[in-house]
Structures are given as structure tokens and as C-alpha cells.
């Protein structure tokens, strides 16, 4: 069978599902958000001073980063789960979150004395960050990997990795409400490592469970 015929067959199979794939992704995302919220509020919950913190730029900027990552990953994974769908534009949007973080880090280096760079990078919660972002994100990752099986991705490892990025962006959004370290230096380092853990798990899950 030619590659084009195989893609058409996979697309037809994905289109014949009981629930349209596009709608199924939104349902799955809602379930994933619910799971992440339950884990978050049953474990660490929001920081006590969250209301005053919401008036600071550094605190709110964390959500700009994490939500941008989640939104761009969601758009890409939906495209990757549909055979023959165009992915170039969605792939290009994946640079948005890293670019925003990079700009924030550069600004931080300009406004913060050099003597404080190390303290802001290390922060006070790096181990909690690297533990709880994967913990909050593992349930959503399982949901997203299940959705990839519901679809028909032609690049399962890549799709699994993007599922990890999506789960990481979602989990990091919840964790940001708890985290007392608001410096972009901390976010760029430890949030990235924590999300990378979920990305690696997603790629492995794509290889093991999403192959066709």
C-alpha cells in the first residue's frame, strides 16, 4: 500500500469514530484539566498570598508562559493526531513560549543586580517544582496518550512528546499558582526541566502505546 493510501485509510478510520476527533480532544482536555485541578488542590494548593501576588508582573508572567505552551501544544497535538493534517503553522507556534521566557530572562538580567542572579535562579522550591509538575501532569498525559490512540498519528513518538508538552504546560499552570519563586530565571530553569520530564515520558508512551 502506498503511503498516500495509508494516510487516507487512517484519516477515514479517525473520521468514523463515534465522537468527532476535534470534539473528542476538547472533551479530553476538559477531563485533563479536572484531573490536574483535583491533584493540585488535594496536594499543595495555591500559595496563601495569591491575591496580592496577582498584582505583580513576575507572578502573572508565569501564567503567560505556561498557558502559551499549553495552547500551542494543544493546537499541534490535534493536528498530529489527524493523518494528512497540516502541521507547519502549529509547529511554528511552539516557539512562542520559549521565546517569551527568553525575553523575560533577558529583562530580568537587566533589572536585577548580578549578585542576585544565582539566588533567583535557584529559588527556594526547585525540588517541589520538579516533583509536583510531573505529579500534576501525569494524569493529563495519560488522557492525551489515550486520545492519540483514538486518533491516528503518523508520527507517534513526536505526538507523544507533544502530549507531554501539553500535560506539562497544563500542570505548570496549576503549579505556578503555588510557586513562591516568580523570577523568570527560576521558571526558565526548573519549570523547563519538569516539563521536559513529562515530554520524555510522553515520547516513550507514544513509542510504546501509540504505534500503528
From TrEMBL:
The chain crosses the membrane at residues 21-43, 63-80, 92-112, 124-145, 157-177, 189-210. It comes from the Bacteria. The keyword Ligase does not apply. Keywords: Membrane, Transmembrane, Transmembrane helix. InterPro entries: NrsF (IPR009495). Signal peptide: none annotated. The keyword Membrane applies. This is DUF1109 family protein. The lineage of its organism: Bacteria, Pseudomonadati, Pseudomonadota, Alphaproteobacteria, Hyphomicrobiales.
